[in-house]
Design a protein that fits this description.
By secondary structure, the chain is of the alpha+beta class. 17% of the residues lie in helices and 30% in strands. The chain is built from five helices and 14 strands. It has helices spanning 2-23, 30-33, 113-116, 142-148, 212-218, and strands at 51-52, 65-69, 72-77, 81-89, 94-98, 121-123, 125-133, 151-152, 162-167, 179-189, 199-204, 222-226, 231-235, 248-250. Strands 1-2-3-4-5-11-6 form a seven-stranded mixed β-sheet, with no helix packed on it. A four-stranded antiparallel β-sheet has the order 8-9-7-10, with no helix packed on it. The chain has a three-stranded antiparallel β-sheet with strand order 12-13-14. A hairpin with a 4-residue loop joins strand 4 and strand 5.
């Protein structure tokens, strides 16, 4: 009986020690253990579901890892290497990166949604038209330029012809008489003039977090990983005056 009691006590002690070891950081507040970070003064705010590579792996979702090069925030893509991150939209789940000069070597022709698609990211794509003119096109009003994102494609142009990129729905009647649409089914990663600047928006999608983080950020909360339930959740704890019973929401719950 004494032996049995001793074994029970030893088992209980081992269980408690093991629980503390396995839970470990789970008992630590997420925002204390994984605060937002950046790559320098004035840098982008990097927070869950993203993390910088120097932070612990449990501070970000799988695959959403960024790196720093000086004060620049970088995203690495398998077929494109590392590129500067221009913006992170936590509500819409979009990250904007800047590729190499899109007109250098006419990379526009090599852009494809397939080469930019990974298991985590999918580019925002748009249909565009290529317009060929025998003379330089004076776009005219600023409204026309902004409405249809007209811009020159220098690498496809020469001294006797000028090529422009425009939105596919631009009415043909707006073209000068010396201009003709040579392609109206060009599908490119990017949107409007952003592709002319070499900027591409990528949407991230992870089954592990679903819409939890985007819904959370849209509702004014802050997304985090809840170690006690092993899934992403939404926290409003930093907002004063909020009922403590409504401070946290987990994946699958309406916000």
């Amino acid at each position: 009986m004494a032996v049995s009691g001793l074994l029970s006590a030893i088992f209980l002690l081992l269980f408690q020690v093991r629980s503390k070891m396995t839970l470990g950081h789970k008992e630590e507040d997420f925002f204390t253990a994984c605060p937002p970070s950046n790559c320098g003064k004035g840098g982008l705010d990097v927070r869950y579901p993203f993390r910088v590579e120097s932070s612990p792996s449990h501070c970000g979702a799988p695959g959403l890892v960024l790196s720093c090069w000086g004060n620049e925030t970088l995203l690495s893509l398998p077929d494109w290497g590392s590129h500067k991150v221009i913006d992170i939209d936590y509500i819409e789940s979009f990250i904007t990166i800047r590729l190499e000069d899109p007109w250098s070597g006419c990379q526009l022709q090599n852009f494809s949604s397939a080469s930019l698609t990974t298991t985590v990211y999918k580019p925002l794509v748009a249909s565009a038209s290529l317009v060929n003119c025998s003379k330089a096109w004076n776009y005219g009003s600023r409204t026309l330029r902004e409405a249809y994102d007209v811009g020159p494609v220098s690498c496809l142009s020469s001294a006797d012809h000028f090529v422009y990129l425009a939105e596919v729905d631009m009415p043909v009647v707006l073209l000068p008489s010396d201009c003709v649409v040579v392609s109206n089914n060009l599908v490119i990663p990017g949107w409007g003039t952003s592709v002319q600047r070499g900027e591409v928006m990528l949407q991230w999608d992870l089954p592990e977090i679903g819409d939890t983080c985007s819904d959370c950020e849209g509702a004014g909360g802050r997304c985090k990983f809840d170690w006690t339930i092993n899934q992403a959740s939404c926290s409003f704890s930093e907002q004063p005056g909020l009922d403590s019973s409504n401070k946290n929401h987990t994946a699958g719950e309406s916000l």
